[in-house]
Amino acid sequence: MLYYTLKRLGVAVLVAITVSVLSFSMIYLSGDPAVALAGEGASNEDIENVRRVYGFDRPIILQYGSWLVQALQGNLGHSNYLKAPVASVIFERLPTTMLLGACSLAFALLLAIPLGVVAAIKPNSILDRIALSVAVVGQAMPSFWFALTLILWLGITWRLLPITGTASWKNFIMPSMALGYYLTPAVMRLTRAGMLDVLSSDYIRTARAKGLRPMTVLFKHALRNAIIPVVSLAAVQFGFMLGGSIVIETIFAINGLGYLAWESIQRADLPMMQAIVLVLSIFYILLTFLADMLNAFLDPRIRVA
Amino acid sequence: MPENSHSKRVLEVKRLNVEIPVPTGLLRPVQDVSLHVDRGETLCVVGESGCGKSLTSLAIMDLLPTKAKRACDEMRLSGDTVFDIGERAMSDIRGDRMSMIFQEPMTSLNPAYTIGNQLVEALQRHRNVSKAQARDRAIYLLEKVGITAAASRLGQYPHQLSGGLRQRVMIAMALMCGPDLIIADEPTTALDVTIQAQILHLLSDLQREFQMGMILITHDLGVVARIADRVAVMYAGQVVETGTAEQIFNAPQHPYTRGLLDCIPIPGKTKRGARLGAIPGIVPSLVGHMSGCHFASRCPQAHEGCETGDIELLPTAQPGHVCRCLLTQTPGTPVHETEGAAS
Predict the structure, then answer these.
(1) What is the ipTM of this complex?
(2) Residues A175 and A258 both lie in one domain
(3) Which residues in A lie closer than 8 A to residue B92 (C-beta atoms)?
(4) Range B60-69 average pLDDT
(5) Are B234 and B53 in contact (CB under 8 A)?
(6) Does residue A81 belong to any structural domain of this protein?
(7) pLDDT tens-digit series, residues B250-303
(8) Which residues of B touch A221 (CB under 8 A)?
(9) A207 and B104 in contact by Cβ < 8 A?
(10) Which residue among A2, A176, B122, B196 is least crowded, i.e. fewest CB within 10 A of its CB?
(11) What is the least distance, in Å, from the CA of A239 to any CA of chain B?
């Protein structure tokens, strides 16, 4: 188990380094940063001045090195637009996005896993068809459209829920549904397929031959084995969801990282965008690592791999 | 039949039928199967692949696939009826009063749980015992089935054990509640030849020690010769002959049983260099209703009468020896109607 953990950790660190390189090079991918910083109508002299002050005249490898050292110390640069350190702005916004992400994931899993299990118990039954329809509708519907529909019905027509802000837990219901629904179809289909596969396996027959109650067979013996691919999928999809939160946070005016990203793109606030990409990527890597650990806990055979 | 021998009876099955709907019609893989097992007795069910041996055992355990439907006149475990008593009542009996060992030890244990966990839950489901008591029982049985360092094995996962060890664990698991009846469905087929003999001896010893009734399903006549008290020969979904091991091996009545015995070399009997027998033809399809003897198309002695009507399992000249063949039958009533005629 220790060996497995170290191995996964090693891979995670390597991926993190790669991501940091990509995130660093973003500055150059969008053109000469000195020109962008100096602003419109700046003379060549001004641009050279900026280049020297910000250190863009140094060799790239040195720039990357000092940027990485700074980043590791928690200094992600300075936002030219907000006139504030990028790190403090991001960590102010991060909890909101994490809360939204966690709520969405919980919503998705709580909806998708039971649906998948029910569909697998009685394949091709009415319940299976209903679950399938939920999945197809979910896959076909863009999340921004679903979000607007929710606002229209729950927020405006029936006035059940607040439509903007983060004032109370009620504000998180609609965004979580809109964001989480995106994840539901894939999780449901994978749970169903996994359960169908596991339920026909020999060890389920053994469990029944022991006289175990149907619920014990289903939840102790079947679900644990069926859920393993779902964990990996959920981790990957959670990463996409953090990206998706840009749209959802903008629609619901939630002051999170996604909203910040959208604002920064509009303001061409390069250091901020760079840092957001880096932070989201690191979270993504962390999640994948956690998913690997969770899977190793669920399936002892993975631990020796 | 005397009353005292009736109380010894662990399992009594009369006219068990299994039907599975398939695209071409109704498949009837088990037809009119009647069996019984007494306390301390080993009944071997033999027959080639697809003859309905495994489905018969799954039907007794009520573990058939959902599409399969079963019907029977009577099914009693130690005198209590165990047919159509509902899933809840049946799950109380499964693993407690009758348990089963499967063919595939590699896939029959849940990979996600330790063997200790899987052994303990078998006992805790049926008995009101503490975890520590269940653990003690598991260690005792693991030692009984020949696993060394049993206590430390409890924390191991199935993938850390070899096939032979896993089958020993399966046997220990089946014994956790001290069942009246144990059904072993080809328990050695997936194992190395050297391990096969060990597992069979083990099963046979444990069966004698705990005085259980045992149904051993196999296609290996060598196994049967070694441990069977009685033998039921199945062909194409039916029991074609039942008798003591001695009767079946020394005086087989049914042409199929004779053909089967001709296929294996017997030390002292089979001449050196002589060709072993083979039964020509193929097993008939079991879809739809089939009249006459199922073996007629392959039988060297078949005559016109063999192709029509239902042929019943009837007593032969030997007591307790019954056969489903027109050639060997002495006039009498069908076995199903005379109580215990097959014993």
Answers:
(1) 0.87
(2) yes
(3) 211
(4) 92
(5) yes
(6) no
(7) 999 999 999 888 888 777 777 777 778 888 888 888 888 888 899 988 888 888
(8) 110, 112-113
(9) no
(10) A2
(11) 27
CATH of the domain at B189: 3.40.50.300
Q: Answer whether residue A250 is part of any domain.
A: yes
Place of tokens 């499967």: B102
Residues 154-183 of B with CB under 8 A from A: 157, 159, 170, 173
Whether B122 contacts chain A with CB within 8 A: yes
CA distance B214 to B209: 12
Q: What is the CATH number of the domain that holds A209?
A: 1.10.3720.10
Domain of B102, in residue numbers: 98-176
Judge whether B137 is closer than 8 Å to chain A, CB to CB. Answer: no
Tell if the CB–CB gap between A225 and B159 is shorter than 8 Å: no
Q: Helices (DSSP H) in B178-325: which residue ranges?
A: 193-209, 221-227, 245-250, 255-262
Number of domains in chain A: 2
Classify the C-alpha dihedral A261-A262-A267-A270 as positive or negative.
positive
Determine the structural domain holding residue A126 and report its residue range.
Answer: 88-303
Q: Is residue B93 part of a domain?
A: no
Chain centre to alpha carbon of residue B272: 33
Structure tokens at B295: 């073996």
For B94-144, how does the pLDDT look when each residue is reduced to its tens digit (9 = 90+)? 999 999 999 899 899 999 999 999 999 999 999 999 999 999 999 999 999
- Measured in angstroms, the CA of A116 and the nearest CA of chain B are apart by 19
SS3 content of chain B, % helix, strand, coil (to 5): 35, 20, 45
Residue that is last in its domain, among A73, A98, A125? A73
Q: Are residues B113 and B259 in the same domain?
A: no
Indicate whether A42 and A157 sit together in one domain. Answer: no
A210: nearest CB among B95, B111, B112: B95
Task: Tell me, yes or no, if A221 comes closer than 8 A to chain B by beta carbon.
Answer: yes
- Confidence (pLDDT) at B337: 45
Residues B207 and B333 in one domain: yes
- CB-based contact A206 B102, cutoff 8 Å: yes
Q: How far is A272 from chain B (nearest CA, A)?
A: 45
Digit-by-digit pLDDT tens for chain A (305 residues) are: 888 899 999 999 999 999 999 888 887 777 777 887 777 778 888 888 888 888 888 888 888 898 889 888 888 888 878 888 999 999 899 889 889 988 999 999 999 999 999 999 888 889 899 988 888 888 888 888 999 999 999 988 998 888 888 888 888 999 999 988 888 888 999 999 999 999 999 999 999 999 999 999 999 999 999 999 999 888 888 887 877 788 899 899 888 898 999 888 888 788 888 899 898 889 889 989 999 999 998 988 888 75
Same domain, yes or no, for B244 and B302? yes
Same domain, B73 and B4: yes
Residues B289 and B309 in one domain: yes
Q: Are A280 and A257 contacting, i.e. CB atoms less than 8 angstroms apart? A: yes
Tokens of A218: 């289903």
- Chain B residues close to A210, C-beta within 8 Å: 94-95, 99, 121-122, 125, 173
Minimum mean pLDDT range among A198-207, B21-30, B141-150, B315-324: B315-324
B88, part of any domain: no
Say if A203 is an interface residue toward chain B (CB within 8 Å): yes
Q: Does A125 touch chain B (CB under 8 A)?
A: no
The tokens for B232 are 């039921």
- Is residue B299 assigned to a domain? yes
Rounded to an integer, what distance in angstroms lies between the CA atom of residue A118 and that of residue B120? 28
Domain end among B156, B176, B196: B176
Tell me the CA distances in angstroms from A136 to A105, A123, A141, A186, one per residue in order.
Answer: 19, 16, 9, 10
Residues of B in contact with A207 (CB under 8 A): 110
Per-residue pLDDT band for B169 (boundaries 50, 70, 90) equals very high
Q: Taking CB atoms and an 8 Å cut-off, how many pairs form between chains A and B?
A: 74
Based on the domain organization, do B164 and B243 belong to the same domain? Answer: no
The answer to whether residue A1 sits within a structural domain is no
Which chain B residue has the Cα nearest residue A213? B91
